[in-house]
Amino acid sequence: MKEIIISKNESNQRLDRFLKKYMPRASKGFIYKMLRKKRIKLNGKKAKPNDILKEGDILNLYLAEDTINKFKEEIKIENRKVNLDIVYEDENIILINKPKGILSHSDRADNRYDVVNMLISYLYGKGEYNPNEEKTFTPSICNRLDRNTSGIIIGAKNFMALQLINKAIREKMIKKYYKCIVKGRVDKDFIIKGYMLKDAEKNRADIFQNYVNGAKKIETGIKVLKSNDEYSLLEINLITGRTHQIRAHLSYLGHPIIGDMKYGDIITNRFFKEKYNLYSQFLHSNRIEFNGLEDCLSYLNGKSFIADLDDLFEKIIKELF
């Protein structure tokens, strides 16, 4: 029999979701069967899959130790020095300025150089995270950026922070702003709406003015910071956060982002590659505003954080405008 005392990082989640994280190799069918047969009890009573765990609850697993270990996964952390560009950090969250060329998250177990694994290594090195002391929680990120898009990634240091930030993002209370340079003159600020259809096989999105089957509604705010007859420096308010939304939407408008190899202009990209050695889109998530956060994160409401552009981006802006 295994006794588990629910800590703060395991509280406020469904029992079946906790068990699936605690024994990730176990099927949902096995977990539900053990609950039905009362082989898993909560506070000495029969437990239901949708029971919400509270801090201090006692969970008893009437399973052999070998069975539990068979369903668990070993967490390996490289104890290495991690160089993160930290915009802000406190006991609950960390804001990381991700450089272009690095994945936000990788599905490959052997990839130690995505932001998630770098965050885990960083917190492990600081002594703020120890997988041997945690039952299910692993530090995680709340938003993602394309590999070649740089800028702010929100990291959560505890389960409550992860829940609260994800809730605020779903409710569109956290505002995310990007800087980019596009081809052509943009004369005024505006908000553009449309529909986006993603082709998973080609990893490419198409934009439509009217709804087509399977498309998702998108909304993008555009503010002109600088412009001339050839290029415009824009601030983008990502109102709906779809993958490739900014890149595809601007290309649809006839103002593709410079350096964008998927949605950009071939001749423009060749110019910036030869002159500036730019091999990826000039797109940077530079600012984030927090609103709508509750409970232990309410102190962040109304606060804004900025991630600096890298030297190459600063040089291009200075020379173009």
Automatic annotation (TrEMBL):
Residues 13-73 form the RNA-binding S4 domain. PROSITE patterns: PSI_RLU (PS01129), S4 (PS50889). It catalyses: a uridine in RNA = a pseudouridine in RNA. GO terms for molecular function: RNA binding; rRNA pseudouridine synthase activity. Its EC number is 5.4.99.-. InterPro entries: PsdUridine_synth_cat_dom_sf, PsdUridine_synth_RluA-like_CS, PsdUridine_synth_RluC/D, PsdUridine_synth_RsuA/RluA, RluA_PseudoU_synthase, S4_RNA-bd, S4_RNA-bd_sf. The active site is at D146. Keywords: Isomerase, RNA-binding. Pfam families: PseudoU_synth_2 (PF00849), S4 (PF01479). It is an enzyme of class 5 (isomerase). GO terms for biological process: enzyme-directed rRNA pseudouridine synthesis. The keyword RNA-binding applies. CDD domains: PseudoU_synth_RluA_like, S4. Gene3D superfamilies: Pseudouridine synthase, RNA-binding S4 domain. The keyword Repeat does not apply. PANTHER family: MITOCHONDRIAL RNA PSEUDOURIDINE SYNTHASE, PSEUDOURIDYLATE SYNTHASE RPUSD4, MITOCHONDRIAL. Belongs to the pseudouridine synthase RluA family. Responsible for synthesis of pseudouridine from uracil. This is Pseudouridine synthase. It comes from Caloranaerobacter azorensis DSM 13643.
